[in-house]
């Protein structure tokens, strides 16, 4: 399976030398930065950031998780796939996968639970309809 | 329940202004930095870092997870509890909890799976006996 | 000369293990995070953050500089001194100094040029009078 | 003048959403991460990293400086130029320039003083001859 077949959004970035810690590997927290960048690319594509600016209803990251499979090192270039999964009234799960060019392998996978939040009313909110439709459409391919 | 009663290691740090992202809250990846600092304090206490320097057998973080319960903001001071759990032949789970002074509440909890690894032989290893004993002793209080 | 005698604001923090890079020393960009934390403590003390919330006139960092004198490593605890210098109509220079407990020595010093900015009008601004007075008073001891 | 005409090494990267701080701009310390990535690309090109692995003589960053000219925001893509300057017996200055695609303008410039260091002997060292030659050649175009 290629990254393209399972993940409609793919974010690509070089690994920075300074992202390695004293073990000589990319530090664990940086994987979550990579996930975040893919998540934001996804949000941008389905109009969730525009929606937040317009109506005040935006995403909150409720939980997140990463499984480290192979250590990343500089120099490398990674591609991070993101896909939405288990779409519910007010939330969905985002799955991530990090592919290393240097390793020719998956370096990590993970997920995050995204909950819609009304930043004006300061409470949970249903997913805005246009965002939901855009997710369904994007995931349908 | 106080943090002290459930977590033998407590790491304390100020929240840095620069750890907030453009939503005005401490960015999600920083919670994993807080977890890491508590984990390292734990490793130091049970001699896992000394062991790694001596024998080449050290810890690897295999998976980690965080549940974000309340947003942290600057200025604040946090205490991060760490405790080892489910000690097995070659691995254990570390549980974390972040307590915010400003909120007077738990801001996040999480966990990580720690696996012993022989960095010389480049393969998994049983937990060194002295590290295991120190964990059991520390957790017994 | 002690840090106290030259710097009215002193920010204290533990060095995080994850702040070290693959050379085994605290990465260079982290020193600027330390400076930033001391700068924000200074701004807070002289009411510059309150002023920004009230009037929209706040600080901008125009340039900054660091001289690395001794490498920092985990574990350590540092104290970062900040003092304002060369106060002008719309700007001042902030001097920093990082003292390492483990080394018993100065690990780095640096400076930054702070310019007052009217975020509403989107242009440079004179330093608000109350902020100027608070700086003069704080520096007079 | 284009970036290409003045800087033999150009490092390109997307701006990450999480690099913005609570002012809604890329945080000041991240500019030094961008500089570092360009510096490492330069070191790699002139064989300074290979040299360090071989002989133990590598680079140390002694001082660095940044002038912030325009705030960067997500989404953007930047190109960071690096060039060596004022080559001396044991040191040289590296100049940096950050160009923003979204702004169509220079967002920041800066410099760093690089000193050769013998990590085995723990003292300053002359620049290795092969590194010096590679720098002269690269800069000659």
For this entry, give a set of tags.
homotetramer, 141 residues, alpha+beta, Thiol Ester Dehydrase, Chain A, 6 strands, elongated
Explain what this protein looks like in three dimensions.
The structure is a homotetramer of 141-residue chains. The first copy, chain A, has 141 residues and is α+β, with helices and mostly antiparallel strands. Chain A has one domain: Thiol Ester Dehydrase, Chain A (Roll). Chain A is built from four helices and six strands. In chain A, strands 1, 2, 3, 4, 5 and 6 form a six-stranded antiparallel β-sheet that branches. In chain A, strand 4 and strand 5 form a beta hairpin. Chain A is elongated, with a radius of gyration of 16 Å.
Topology:
Four copies of one chain form a homotetramer.
Chain A: H1 3-6, E1 9-14, H2 28-45, H3 48-55, E2 57-68, E3 77-85, E4 91-100, E5 105-118, E6 123-124, H4 129-140
Antiparallel strand pairs in A: 1-3, 2-5, 3-4, 4-5, 5-6
Helix content of chain A: 25-40%
Q: Given the C-alpha coordinates, what overall shape of chain A results?
A: elongated
Rg estimate of chain A, integer Å: 16 Å
Main sheet of chain A?
6 strands, antiparallel
> What's the rounded overall pLDDT mean of chain A?
96
Named CATH topology of chain A? Thiol Ester Dehydrase, Chain A
Look at the helices and sheets of chain A and give the structural class.
alpha+beta
Low-confidence stretches of chain A: none
> Which two chains form the greatest contact, residue counts included?
C-D, 16 and 16 residues
CATH superfamily descriptor of chain A: Hotdog Thioesterase
Give the distance, in angstroms, between the N- and C-terminal Cα atoms of chain A.
16 Å
How many strand units of chain A? 6
CATH class of chain A: Alpha Beta
Our estimate of the beta-strand percent of chain A is 35-45%
Query: How large is the count of helical segments of chain A?
Result: 4
Quaternary state of the chains:
homotetramer
Domain module tally of chain A: 1
Secondary-structure element order of chain A, as H and E? HEHHEEEEEH
The CATH architecture name of chain A reads Roll
């Amino acid at each position: 399976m290629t990254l393209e077949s399972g993940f409609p959004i793919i974010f690509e970035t070089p690994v920075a030398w300074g992202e390695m810690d004293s073990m000589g590997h990319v530090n664990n927290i940086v994987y979550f930065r990579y996930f975040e960048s893919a998540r934001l690319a996804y949000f941008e594509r389905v109009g969730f950031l525009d929606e937040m600016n317009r109506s005040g209803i935006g995403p909150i990251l409720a939980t997140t998780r990463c499984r480290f499979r192979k250590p990343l090192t500089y120099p490398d270039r990674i591609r991070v796939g993101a896909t939405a999964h288990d779409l519910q009234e007010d939330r969905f799960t985002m799955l991530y996968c990090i592919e290393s060019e240097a390793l020719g392998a998956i370096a990590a996978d993970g997920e995050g639970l995204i909950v819609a939040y009304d930043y004006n009313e300061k409470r949970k909110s249903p997913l805005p309809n246009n965002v939901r439709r855009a997710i369904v459409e994007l995931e349908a391919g």
